[in-house]
Fold:
Amino acid sequence: MGETLPCRFGDYVLLLRLAVGGMAEVFLAKHMGLEGFEKLVVVKRILPEYSDRPEFVAMFLNEARVAARLNHPNIVQIFNLGKVGETYFIAMEHVDGEDLRHMVKAALAAGERGLPPPVLCRVFADLCGGLQHAHSFIDDRGEALGLVHRDVTPQNIIVAYSGFTKILDFGVAKASLRTEQSHYGTVKGKIAYLSPEQVRGGQ
Structure:
């Protein structure tokens, strides 16, 4: 939106723009509360040109609704879904680390063939733990969420400097309890990472 950072955004102060994607931008921010309370978070807000497009708003809201149900150490936590003016936003956990894409690029730039196998084993063990929790999640009514992430890519896998891994971005996740279902025949996700089942529209 062209603000000079840092700037106020509702109950948050946007400090640094971390990324901008196809329909949203992501900021490092502080949540400002009572009596000097501050908490470092990440704020993801929908871009202005998509705020009045129902299909993109529905996808954005779906990410918050789906991820907020999940409570697992290997899934980035959602703290809040809100709206400032006409702009929807999600406030989520800040993970001090790097995404897997940047880690691999750094290793290659340093002359390595890639990340060391023990590191990859730890990353993928954590990743599988988070995905298994999502896939098998049962809500408080005893109903299976039936969740498939559909966008498990290196940029959506964050490795903290402390060593643990978290998955984020459930924007194109498919769930049986989802409010807005995909249109028949629509394939969502990045083509290089689609499973055969996803391409065929199967289970």
Q: What stands out?
A: The helical segments are 54-68, 100-109, 117-135, 196-200.
